[in-house]
Design a protein that fits this description.
12 helices
Amino acid sequence: MNDLRTTADAGRRHAGLLRELEPAVAGHLERHLGTAVEWFPHQYVPWNAARDFDGPLGGLPWHPAQSPLAPAVRDALLVNLLTEDNLPSYHHEIASCFGRDTAWGTWVHLWTAEEGRHAEALRAYLHAVRGVDPVVLERARMAHVSTGYDGRQPSLAHGLAYVTVQELATREAHRNAGQACGEPHGARLMSRIAADENLHMVFYRSLCADILALAPDDFVAALADVVCDFRMPGHAIPGFQARAARIAAAGIYDITHHQQHVLLPLLRTLRVMEYPGLGPQGEQGRERIGRHLEVLAAKSARLQDLRARMRSRTLRTATDTGSPQNGQPREDRQGVDR
Protein backbone atom coordinates (compact mmCIF):
# COMPACT_ATOMS: atom_id res chain seq x y z
CA MET A 1 0.00 0.00 0.00
CA ASN A 2 2.80 2.40 0.87
CA ASP A 3 4.50 1.65 -2.46
CA LEU A 4 1.28 2.48 -4.32
CA ARG A 5 0.90 5.72 -2.38
CA THR A 6 4.52 6.64 -3.10
CA THR A 7 4.07 5.93 -6.81
CA ALA A 8 0.89 8.02 -6.92
CA ASP A 9 2.63 10.90 -5.11
CA ALA A 10 5.54 10.73 -7.56
CA GLY A 11 3.11 10.80 -10.49
CA ARG A 12 1.33 13.85 -9.14
CA ARG A 13 4.67 15.56 -8.53
CA HIS A 14 5.78 14.77 -12.07
CA ALA A 15 2.54 16.11 -13.58
CA GLY A 16 2.70 19.21 -11.40
CA LEU A 17 6.24 20.05 -12.51
CA LEU A 18 5.29 19.54 -16.16
CA ARG A 19 2.51 22.11 -15.73
CA GLU A 20 4.72 24.55 -13.86
CA LEU A 21 7.48 24.33 -16.46
CA GLU A 22 5.22 24.48 -19.52
CA PRO A 23 5.51 28.30 -19.95
CA ALA A 24 9.30 27.98 -19.78
CA VAL A 25 9.23 25.20 -22.37
CA ALA A 26 7.19 27.43 -24.68
CA GLY A 27 9.70 30.25 -24.27
CA HIS A 28 12.72 28.03 -24.86
CA LEU A 29 10.99 26.48 -27.87
CA GLU A 30 10.39 29.91 -29.40
CA ARG A 31 14.05 30.79 -28.89
CA HIS A 32 15.13 27.49 -30.43
CA LEU A 33 12.97 28.06 -33.51
CA GLY A 34 14.52 31.48 -33.92
CA THR A 35 18.05 30.09 -33.66
CA ALA A 36 17.97 26.75 -35.47
CA VAL A 37 19.14 26.79 -39.07
CA GLU A 38 17.40 24.73 -41.74
CA TRP A 39 19.77 22.32 -43.47
CA PHE A 40 19.50 19.43 -45.89
CA PRO A 41 21.32 16.11 -45.44
CA HIS A 42 21.72 15.51 -49.18
CA GLN A 43 23.85 18.66 -49.49
CA TYR A 44 26.50 17.26 -47.14
CA VAL A 45 27.09 13.97 -48.95
CA PRO A 46 29.80 13.70 -51.66
CA TRP A 47 27.63 11.69 -54.02
CA ASN A 48 30.17 11.83 -56.86
CA ALA A 49 32.53 9.71 -54.73
CA ALA A 50 30.00 6.87 -54.49
CA ARG A 51 30.29 3.52 -56.28
CA ASP A 52 28.03 0.49 -56.36
CA PHE A 53 28.68 -2.19 -53.76
CA ASP A 54 28.64 -5.91 -54.41
CA GLY A 55 25.22 -7.56 -54.36
CA PRO A 56 22.32 -7.22 -56.80
CA LEU A 57 24.06 -4.30 -58.57
CA GLY A 58 27.28 -6.26 -59.06
CA GLY A 59 29.52 -3.55 -57.67
CA LEU A 60 32.78 -3.65 -55.76
CA PRO A 61 32.98 -5.29 -52.31
CA TRP A 62 34.11 -3.07 -49.45
CA HIS A 63 37.74 -3.27 -48.31
CA PRO A 64 39.46 -1.29 -45.52
CA ALA A 65 41.95 0.15 -48.00
CA GLN A 66 39.09 2.00 -49.70
CA SER A 67 38.28 4.03 -46.60
CA PRO A 68 39.75 7.52 -46.26
CA LEU A 69 39.26 7.27 -42.50
CA ALA A 70 41.70 6.11 -39.84
CA PRO A 71 40.61 2.98 -37.94
CA ALA A 72 39.73 4.87 -34.74
CA VAL A 73 37.70 7.41 -36.73
CA ARG A 74 35.83 4.53 -38.37
CA ASP A 75 35.03 3.25 -34.87
CA ALA A 76 33.89 6.70 -33.75
CA LEU A 77 31.63 7.34 -36.73
CA LEU A 78 30.14 3.86 -36.56
CA VAL A 79 29.32 4.29 -32.86
CA ASN A 80 27.96 7.79 -33.48
CA LEU A 81 25.74 6.58 -36.32
CA LEU A 82 24.41 3.55 -34.48
CA THR A 83 23.66 5.77 -31.50
CA GLU A 84 21.63 8.08 -33.73
CA ASP A 85 19.88 5.06 -35.30
CA ASN A 86 18.02 4.27 -32.08
CA LEU A 87 15.88 7.40 -32.47
CA PRO A 88 12.55 5.50 -32.27
CA SER A 89 13.42 4.35 -28.75
CA TYR A 90 14.62 7.81 -27.73
CA HIS A 91 11.39 9.35 -28.99
CA HIS A 92 9.40 6.87 -26.92
CA GLU A 93 11.46 7.68 -23.82
CA ILE A 94 11.15 11.45 -23.98
CA ALA A 95 7.49 11.31 -25.01
CA SER A 96 6.84 9.09 -21.99
CA CYS A 97 8.68 11.54 -19.73
CA PHE A 98 7.56 14.89 -21.16
CA GLY A 99 4.21 13.98 -22.72
CA ARG A 100 2.80 14.77 -26.15
CA ASP A 101 0.65 17.74 -25.22
CA THR A 102 1.24 21.50 -24.94
CA ALA A 103 4.69 22.92 -25.72
CA TRP A 104 6.29 19.77 -24.30
CA GLY A 105 4.76 17.66 -27.07
CA THR A 106 5.69 20.21 -29.73
CA TRP A 107 9.28 20.02 -28.58
CA VAL A 108 9.32 16.21 -28.46
CA HIS A 109 8.23 15.95 -32.10
CA LEU A 110 10.49 18.77 -33.30
CA TRP A 111 13.50 17.26 -31.53
CA THR A 112 12.79 13.90 -33.14
CA ALA A 113 12.48 15.46 -36.60
CA GLU A 114 15.74 17.34 -36.23
CA GLU A 115 17.59 14.33 -34.85
CA GLY A 116 16.37 12.21 -37.77
CA ARG A 117 18.61 14.15 -40.15
CA HIS A 118 21.73 13.00 -38.34
CA ALA A 119 21.55 9.29 -39.10
CA GLU A 120 20.29 9.96 -42.61
CA ALA A 121 23.23 12.21 -43.48
CA LEU A 122 25.92 10.22 -41.68
CA ARG A 123 24.93 6.88 -43.20
CA ALA A 124 24.82 8.36 -46.70
CA TYR A 125 28.25 9.93 -46.17
CA LEU A 126 29.83 6.70 -44.92
CA HIS A 127 28.37 4.75 -47.83
CA ALA A 128 29.45 7.35 -50.39
CA VAL A 129 33.08 7.48 -49.24
CA ARG A 130 33.18 3.77 -48.32
CA GLY A 131 34.16 4.83 -44.84
CA VAL A 132 33.11 1.68 -42.98
CA ASP A 133 32.15 -1.87 -43.83
CA PRO A 134 28.47 -1.54 -44.85
CA VAL A 135 27.66 -5.15 -43.95
CA VAL A 136 29.11 -4.79 -40.44
CA LEU A 137 27.27 -1.49 -40.09
CA GLU A 138 23.89 -2.89 -41.11
CA ARG A 139 24.16 -6.00 -38.98
CA ALA A 140 25.11 -3.88 -35.98
CA ARG A 141 22.19 -1.55 -36.69
CA MET A 142 19.76 -4.44 -36.78
CA ALA A 143 21.08 -5.83 -33.51
CA HIS A 144 21.14 -2.45 -31.76
CA VAL A 145 17.77 -1.11 -32.89
CA SER A 146 16.08 -4.49 -32.40
CA THR A 147 17.24 -4.43 -28.78
CA GLY A 148 15.94 -0.90 -28.29
CA TYR A 149 16.94 1.54 -25.59
CA ASP A 150 15.51 1.58 -22.10
CA GLY A 151 16.63 4.77 -20.39
CA ARG A 152 13.58 5.43 -18.27
CA GLN A 153 14.38 7.92 -15.54
CA PRO A 154 12.63 7.88 -12.15
CA SER A 155 11.57 11.55 -12.23
CA LEU A 156 11.29 14.60 -14.46
CA ALA A 157 14.42 16.01 -12.82
CA HIS A 158 16.33 12.84 -13.69
CA GLY A 159 15.04 12.95 -17.25
CA LEU A 160 16.09 16.57 -17.82
CA ALA A 161 19.47 16.01 -16.17
CA TYR A 162 20.18 12.96 -18.32
CA VAL A 163 19.26 14.46 -21.68
CA THR A 164 21.32 17.55 -20.91
CA VAL A 165 24.46 15.59 -20.07
CA GLN A 166 23.83 13.23 -22.98
CA GLU A 167 23.32 15.99 -25.56
CA LEU A 168 26.49 17.75 -24.44
CA ALA A 169 28.48 14.51 -24.52
CA THR A 170 27.08 13.69 -27.96
CA ARG A 171 28.01 17.14 -29.23
CA GLU A 172 31.58 16.59 -28.12
CA ALA A 173 31.71 13.08 -29.58
CA HIS A 174 30.46 14.28 -32.99
CA ARG A 175 32.66 17.36 -33.08
CA ASN A 176 35.80 15.50 -32.04
CA ALA A 177 35.17 12.72 -34.55
CA GLY A 178 34.86 15.35 -37.26
CA GLN A 179 38.08 17.07 -36.23
CA ALA A 180 39.90 13.73 -36.30
CA CYS A 181 38.31 12.76 -39.61
CA GLY A 182 41.09 13.96 -41.89
CA GLU A 183 38.52 14.18 -44.70
CA PRO A 184 36.86 17.54 -45.44
CA HIS A 185 33.35 16.30 -46.24
CA GLY A 186 33.18 14.26 -43.04
CA ALA A 187 34.56 17.13 -40.98
CA ARG A 188 31.93 19.50 -42.39
CA LEU A 189 29.09 17.07 -41.78
CA MET A 190 30.08 16.27 -38.21
CA SER A 191 30.41 19.97 -37.42
CA ARG A 192 26.88 20.50 -38.75
CA ILE A 193 25.47 17.64 -36.68
CA ALA A 194 27.33 18.85 -33.58
CA ALA A 195 25.72 22.28 -34.02
CA ASP A 196 22.28 20.65 -33.82
CA GLU A 197 23.26 18.74 -30.70
CA ASN A 198 24.48 21.97 -29.12
CA LEU A 199 21.12 23.68 -29.65
CA HIS A 200 19.33 20.68 -28.18
CA MET A 201 21.65 20.78 -25.18
CA VAL A 202 20.98 24.51 -24.68
CA PHE A 203 17.23 23.85 -24.67
CA TYR A 204 17.54 21.12 -22.05
CA ARG A 205 20.11 22.99 -19.99
CA SER A 206 17.78 25.98 -19.81
CA LEU A 207 15.04 23.72 -18.46
CA CYS A 208 17.50 22.35 -15.92
CA ALA A 209 18.02 25.89 -14.67
CA ASP A 210 14.25 26.32 -14.44
CA ILE A 211 13.65 23.12 -12.49
CA LEU A 212 16.65 23.91 -10.29
CA ALA A 213 14.89 27.12 -9.27
CA LEU A 214 11.58 25.30 -8.66
CA ALA A 215 12.90 22.21 -6.86
CA PRO A 216 16.60 22.67 -6.09
CA ASP A 217 17.03 19.70 -3.77
CA ASP A 218 15.22 17.31 -6.10
CA PHE A 219 17.20 18.47 -9.11
CA VAL A 220 20.66 18.39 -7.51
CA ALA A 221 19.98 14.92 -6.10
CA ALA A 222 18.79 13.77 -9.55
CA LEU A 223 21.79 15.34 -11.26
CA ALA A 224 24.09 13.51 -8.86
CA ASP A 225 22.44 10.21 -9.79
CA VAL A 226 22.87 10.95 -13.50
CA VAL A 227 26.43 12.25 -13.30
CA CYS A 228 27.72 9.44 -11.09
CA ASP A 229 26.08 6.63 -13.10
CA PHE A 230 26.14 8.15 -16.59
CA ARG A 231 26.33 5.89 -19.62
CA MET A 232 26.11 6.98 -23.23
CA PRO A 233 22.88 5.86 -24.94
CA GLY A 234 24.91 3.72 -27.35
CA HIS A 235 26.47 1.59 -24.62
CA ALA A 236 24.56 -1.49 -25.84
CA ILE A 237 25.98 -1.28 -29.38
CA PRO A 238 27.67 -4.59 -30.30
CA GLY A 239 31.37 -4.29 -29.50
CA PHE A 240 30.88 -0.92 -27.81
CA GLN A 241 33.49 -1.37 -25.07
CA ALA A 242 36.28 -2.32 -27.46
CA ARG A 243 35.39 0.48 -29.86
CA ALA A 244 35.14 3.00 -27.03
CA ALA A 245 38.61 1.97 -25.83
CA ARG A 246 40.07 2.54 -29.30
CA ILE A 247 38.25 5.88 -29.60
CA ALA A 248 39.67 6.92 -26.23
CA ALA A 249 43.18 5.73 -27.12
CA ALA A 250 43.04 7.90 -30.24
CA GLY A 251 42.11 10.93 -28.13
CA ILE A 252 38.72 11.40 -29.82
CA TYR A 253 36.59 11.01 -26.68
CA ASP A 254 37.81 9.85 -23.31
CA ILE A 255 37.35 10.45 -19.61
CA THR A 256 39.21 13.76 -19.81
CA HIS A 257 36.86 15.06 -22.50
CA HIS A 258 33.88 13.99 -20.41
CA GLN A 259 35.21 15.71 -17.30
CA GLN A 260 36.59 18.89 -18.88
CA HIS A 261 34.13 19.55 -21.70
CA VAL A 262 30.88 18.03 -20.47
CA LEU A 263 30.52 17.91 -16.69
CA LEU A 264 32.54 20.93 -15.56
CA PRO A 265 31.00 23.41 -18.06
CA LEU A 266 27.50 22.19 -17.22
CA LEU A 267 28.05 22.48 -13.48
CA ARG A 268 29.54 25.97 -13.90
CA THR A 269 26.69 27.22 -16.06
CA LEU A 270 24.05 25.95 -13.64
CA ARG A 271 26.13 27.05 -10.62
CA VAL A 272 25.35 23.72 -8.99
CA MET A 273 28.41 23.61 -6.75
CA GLU A 274 27.64 27.00 -5.20
CA TYR A 275 23.85 27.07 -5.45
CA PRO A 276 22.47 28.63 -2.24
CA GLY A 277 19.87 27.32 0.15
CA LEU A 278 20.05 23.59 -0.50
CA GLY A 279 18.58 21.25 2.07
CA PRO A 280 20.09 17.95 3.27
CA GLN A 281 19.06 16.06 0.11
CA GLY A 282 20.59 18.65 -2.18
CA GLU A 283 23.77 18.98 -0.14
CA GLN A 284 24.22 15.22 -0.15
CA GLY A 285 23.81 15.22 -3.92
CA ARG A 286 26.33 18.03 -4.29
CA GLU A 287 28.84 16.14 -2.16
CA ARG A 288 28.38 13.06 -4.35
CA ILE A 289 29.06 15.15 -7.45
CA GLY A 290 32.17 16.62 -5.84
CA ARG A 291 33.54 13.19 -4.95
CA HIS A 292 32.82 11.92 -8.45
CA LEU A 293 34.68 14.85 -10.00
CA GLU A 294 37.68 14.05 -7.80
CA VAL A 295 37.64 10.43 -9.00
CA LEU A 296 37.43 11.54 -12.63
CA ALA A 297 40.25 14.04 -12.16
CA ALA A 298 42.50 11.34 -10.69
CA LYS A 299 41.71 8.94 -13.53
CA SER A 300 42.29 11.68 -16.08
CA ALA A 301 45.67 12.53 -14.56
CA ARG A 302 46.72 8.88 -14.69
CA LEU A 303 45.60 8.67 -18.31
CA GLN A 304 47.57 11.77 -19.29
CA ASP A 305 50.65 10.48 -17.48
CA LEU A 306 50.38 7.13 -19.26
CA ARG A 307 50.07 8.83 -22.63
CA ALA A 308 53.07 11.07 -21.91
CA ARG A 309 55.20 8.05 -20.99
CA MET A 310 54.06 6.20 -24.12
CA ARG A 311 54.93 9.19 -26.31
CA SER A 312 58.33 9.47 -24.68
CA ARG A 313 59.01 5.77 -25.15
CA THR A 314 57.87 5.89 -28.78
CA LEU A 315 60.05 8.93 -29.43
CA ARG A 316 63.10 7.20 -27.99
CA THR A 317 62.43 4.12 -30.12
CA ALA A 318 61.97 6.23 -33.23
CA THR A 319 65.21 8.10 -32.55
CA ASP A 320 67.12 4.85 -32.08
CA THR A 321 65.74 3.23 -35.24
CA GLY A 322 65.41 6.28 -37.47
CA SER A 323 61.72 5.50 -38.10
CA PRO A 324 58.95 8.17 -38.12
CA GLN A 325 58.71 9.90 -34.75
CA ASN A 326 55.51 8.34 -33.56
CA GLY A 327 56.36 4.93 -34.97
CA GLN A 328 52.93 4.34 -36.49
CA PRO A 329 51.69 3.96 -40.05
CA ARG A 330 50.21 7.15 -41.39
CA GLU A 331 46.64 5.79 -41.36
CA ASP A 332 46.81 5.03 -37.64
CA ARG A 333 48.30 8.44 -36.85
CA GLN A 334 45.36 10.37 -38.25
CA GLY A 335 43.05 9.56 -35.37
CA VAL A 336 45.73 10.18 -32.73
CA ASP A 337 47.54 13.34 -33.67
CA ARG A 338 44.79 15.58 -34.94
